[in-house]
Amino acid sequence: MALPAKSLASAAANGLRLVSVRNSSSQPKVALLGASGGIGQPLGLLLKQDPLVAHLALYDVVNTPGVAADLSHIDSKAKVTAHTGAAELHAAVKDADVIVIPAGVPRKPGMTRDDLFNTNAGIVRDLVETIAKAAPKALIAIITNPVNSTVPIAAEVLKKNGVYDKRRLFGVTTLDVVRSQAFVAELKGHDATKTVVPVVGGHAGITIIPLLSQTKPSTKFSDEEIAKLTPRIQDAGTEVVNAKAGAGSATLSMALAGARFANALVRGIKGDKNVQCAYVESDAVKGVQYFSTPVELGPNGVEKILGVTSYEQKLIDASVAELNKNIEKGVAFVKGK
Ligand SMILES: NC(=O)c1ccc[n+]([C@@H]2O[C@H](COP(=O)([O-])OP(=O)(O)OC[C@H]3O[C@@H](n4cnc5c(N)ncnc54)[C@H](O)[C@@H]3O)[C@@H](O)[C@H]2O)c1
Ligand SMILES: O=C(O)C[C@H](O)C(=O)O
């Protein structure tokens, strides 16, 4: 909630330290952490072009001034600021409405997303530690892998700081949706821009569950088509990692997906409720604490979790044990077990 200028002035006059006032929804600030990276740079470009973004704060441990100078020459609305290194993180996230995090290392061929845990868990923990203090009301969208674990890590850090609100923390699974829609449209000759495929579960291997039965426009798939499409969607990240042959993982399609999700969060903040799939704390599926389903986004983040009723129940059941392993690993990392 933003305070009117008058209250801010009188609070300051009375010597009050204003710690975390969010911008008004009319001037949204988006902070991008990991802004100089393979995802960060094109995602920064797309966010700079988003007419809803008033302030784009770019944070990274390296190269932020150059990326910011470059983006700031684009004739779109968003003001761009650069913040480099831990000492400038607080300023980057302060008053942010939305914080998008692609900071961390990507996979190389032969690695699983879980192999990134040792490096990326600490990066996410430390970033969220500062967010908890400087921007406790921000909506946080985590791209950094392994998403199945980095989201519980972020939640535990926010809980430790007494500011956790399950409606405001998201694992970004939009790329799984984007891919499913692209692959289905290609197979069926649909218009990709009008094809909708929800994807539920998590963001790794068998936890990625495309609900092909709920494709819109309503589409029939043979058993053979489902048997080919499902693993292709589940392994699409690996397809890119292998094609890039050591030069990283998906960056361009992820930038598009990240920008789409950030835009959806900002629209929600502005009162334009909309539905997106995201990995959130959820009671949609029994026996697992975090699960991606379609959720309704609004001014406070998740307004409503839309459940999953689906023909893909076997896939959902099979994902639960794997997800629980990933979640427990993230929670134990913060709790020091
Ligand atoms: N959720 C998804 O669907 C999805 C899709 C693609 C990639 N990813 C993940 O996104 C992450 C980033 O991928 P990438 O290709 O952009 O990697 P990259 O190596 O190209 O970029 C990462 C950036 O993070 C920065 N960074 C490292 N430590 C940091 C810290 N402590 N604070 C701020 N910035 C820091 C680096 O300097 C670099 O600029 C990886 O973990 C990757 O697995 C997730
Ligand atoms: O596959 C990866 O490692 C990156 C990302 O999670 C993806 O799905 O492309």
Shape type: globular
Stated plainly, the CATH topology of the largest domain is called L-2-Hydroxyisocaproate Dehydrogenase, Chain A, domain 2
What is the number of beta strands? 11
Bound molecules: nicotinamide-adenine-dinucleotide, (2S)-2-hydroxybutanedioic acid
Gap between N and C termini = 37 Å
The low-confidence runs, each spanning 5 or more residues with pLDDT under 50, are 1-21
Content of β-strand = 15-25%
Name of the level-1 CATH class of the largest domain? Alpha Beta
Report the order of strands and helices: HEHEHEHEHEHEHEEHHHEEEH
What features would you describe in this structure?
Its EC number is 1.1.1.37. It catalyses: (S)-malate + NAD(+) = oxaloacetate + NADH + H(+). The protein has 11 helices and 11 strands. It is about 40% helix and about 15% strand. It is α/β, with parallel strands linked by helices. It has a 6-stranded parallel β-sheet with strand order 3-2-1-4-5-6, with helices on both faces. Strands 9-10-11 form a 3-stranded antiparallel β-sheet. A two-stranded antiparallel ribbon has the order 7-8. Strand 5 (about 140), helix 6 and strand 6 form a beta-alpha-beta unit. The longest helix has 23 residues, at about 315-335. The chain has helices at about 5-15, 40-50, 65-70, 90-95, 115-135, 145-160, 175-190, 225-235, 235-245, 250-270, 315-335, and strands at about 30-35, 55-60, 80-85, 100, 140, 170, 200, 210, 275-280, 290-300, 300-305. The protein binds nicotinamide-adenine-dinucleotide and (2S)-2-hydroxybutanedioic acid.
